[in-house]
């Protein structure tokens, strides 16, 4: 058996079970690129500070580049007995270039190293998720553009409430996604500080330059407190929270579309490209992708809960428990990227059944609130009067606009002939004019905003 990098004080080797239980190479090899990037910056800094020679630095750089090449071509052998990504790369570097590699870990611990890698990795993940969020926003805006003027029932309590423009509704999701992207960017700003040089927890007496490595890795600045640097995972929790919130937005979008695709609603028809069938019922065509978007939000929320639970009660500073912070992050990122991509493809592959929607609009007295707004008497009173008119409709099984002026007047003399200008969903929708409302001018300006902001066309 090869001696451990940390083996000096040990007389016996760990059992196979302990080795298997404590390894992280099976998952943290995903950090290799950022680990190599961090090591190169560290070696450059050590050389500049005179802690290693320029020749050492150059052979470390060349060796690390060769290792990166081998990893990417699949030639690199990841070894469980070398525990994690940091020691796999360092040991392989020693195999490759010998003595100079043994100087690389000067003024560095795996505790600050792993956090440097992880912050860099999450920074890239944030950028990748941002791209996918925008892709979904663009898909939703384009879907809205294809459906100008379509009125749909708006719901509260899943009961028909007021008529809204379909564009207005689709743009609501675009707004939510914009805040999701914003939360990730906020998180990126806060996480972008460099832990490298915090070493195990106390820093070092060697004359390192933490500002140099921080700059080289495009961090804003080195972290001020070495104990904080190696102990906290708030940036991970914040990132996973942002993903969890995004996943809940996507889950609600999924639920909306699953509902709309049902026979009962029949508002949308997803194309075959985004539907799957049943192994027993030959007629079935199911909106599985959006059901799974809804379902997979559970994992993303679970990943956050894992991190919160992991960190609760840990004493300062580094604890090995913290190795468990990686897999939830990898899972969260993989899942959220898939959810965003599939939601965008779904948006690109649905058609709204305008006739069916149109036919359903008279149901549910969607125009009642507009009518109440227009009676020109105290709102509480008009609410009551329109409520009584609705009750008459319910007993007769008709819509408000089917009541005659005489019938309306017998409910209350306030009704005049002009009442019909406010009745019917088309009339009702036209009356909206407040900022952010479903009025067509307001929705058109929302749409303009997004077309410009998202650089569509
Ligand atoms: N694989 C470890 C982790 O992910 C790296 C840090 C290990 N540090 C230590 N002192 N054992 O947390």
Overview of the molecule:
It is a single chain. 59% of the residues lie in helices and 5% in strands. By secondary structure, it is mainly alpha-helical. It has a two-stranded antiparallel sheet with strand order 1-2. The mean pLDDT is 96. It binds arginine.
Describe the protein's topology.
Elements (H helix, E strand, L loop, with lengths): L15 H7 L2 H4 L3 H17 L5 H19 L12 H13 L12 H36 L5 E6 L2 E7 H26 L1 E2 L15 H7 L4 E2 L3 H6 L2 H27 L7 E3 L17 H24 L14 H23 L1 E3 L1 H7 L7 H7 L4 H18 L8 H7 L13 H6 L9 H14 L4
Helix pairs in contact: 3-4, 3-6, 3-8, 4-5, 6-7, 6-12, 7-10, 7-18, 10-11, 10-12, 11-12, 14-15
Family: Belongs to the lyase 1 family. Argininosuccinate lyase subfamily.
Protein name: argininosuccinate lyase
InterPro entries: Arg_succ_lyase_C, Argininosuccinate_lyase, Fumarase/histidase_N, Fumarate_lyase_CS, Fumarate_lyase_fam, Fumarate_lyase_N, L-Aspartase-like
Summarize the structure.
This protein has helices spanning 16-22, 25-28, 32-48, 54-72, 85-97, 110-145, 166-191, 210-216, 226-231, 234-260, 288-311, 326-348, 354-360, 368-374, 379-396, 405-411, 425-430, 440-453, and strands at 151-156, 159-165, 193-194, 221-222, 268-270, 350-352.
């Amino acid at each position: 058996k090869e001696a451990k990098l940390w083996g000096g004080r040990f007389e016996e080797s760990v059992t196979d079970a302990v080795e298997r239980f404590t390894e992280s190479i099976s998952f943290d090899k995903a950090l290799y690129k950022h680990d190599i990037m961090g090591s190169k910056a560290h070696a450059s800094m050590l050389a500049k500070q005179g802690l290693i020679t320029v020749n050492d630095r150059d052979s470390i750089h060349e060796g690390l580049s060769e290792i990166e090449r081998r990893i990417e071509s699949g030639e690199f052998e990841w070894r469980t007995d070398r525990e994690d990504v940091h020691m796999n790369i360092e040991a392989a570097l020693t195999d490759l270039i010998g003595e100079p590699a043994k100087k690389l870990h000067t003024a560095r611990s795996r505790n600050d190293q792993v956090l440097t890698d992880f912050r860099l990795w999450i920074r890239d993940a944030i950028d990748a998720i941002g791209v996918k969020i925008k892709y979904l926003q663009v898909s939703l805006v384009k879907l809205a553009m294809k459906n100008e003027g379509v009125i749909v029932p708006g719901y509260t309590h899943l009961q028909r409430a007021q008529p809204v423009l379909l564009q207005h509704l689709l743009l609501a999701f675009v707004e939510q996604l914009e805040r999701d992207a914003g939360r990730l960017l906020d998180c990126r700003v806060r996480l972008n500080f460099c832990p490298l040089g915090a070493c195990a927890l106390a820093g070092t007496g060697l004359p390192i330059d933490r500002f140099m490595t921080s700059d080289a890795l495009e961090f804003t600045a080195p972290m001020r407190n070495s104990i904080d640097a190696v102990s906290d995972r708030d940036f991970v929790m914040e990132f996973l929270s942002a993903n969890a919130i995004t996943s809940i937005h996507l889950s609600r979008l999924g639920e909306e579309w699953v509902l709309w695709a049902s026979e009962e609603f029949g508002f949308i028809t997803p194309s075959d490209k985004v539907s799957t069938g049943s192994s027993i019922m030959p007629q079935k065509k199911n909106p599985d992708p959006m059901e799974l978007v809804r379902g997979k939000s559970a994992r993303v929320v679970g990943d956050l809960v894992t991190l919160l639970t992991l960190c609760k009660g840990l004493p300062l500073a580094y604890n090995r428990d913290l190795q468990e912070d990686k897999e939830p992050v990898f899972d969260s990122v993989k899942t959220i990227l898939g959810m965003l991509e599939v939601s965008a493809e779904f948006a690109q592959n649905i058609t709204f059944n305008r006739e069916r929607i149109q036919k359903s609009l008279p149901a549910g007295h969607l125009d009642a609130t507009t009518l109440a707004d227009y009676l020109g008497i105290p709102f509480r009173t008009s609410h009551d009067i329109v409520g009584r008119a609705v009750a008459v409709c319910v007993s007769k099984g008709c819509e408000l606009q089917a009541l005659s002026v005489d019938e309306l007047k017998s409910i209350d003399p306030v009704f005049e002939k002009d009442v019909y200008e406010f009745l019917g969903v088309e009339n009702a929708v036209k009356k909206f004019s407040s900022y952010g409302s479903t009025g067509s001018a307001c929705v058109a300006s929302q749409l303009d905003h997004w077309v410009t902001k998202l650089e569509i066309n």
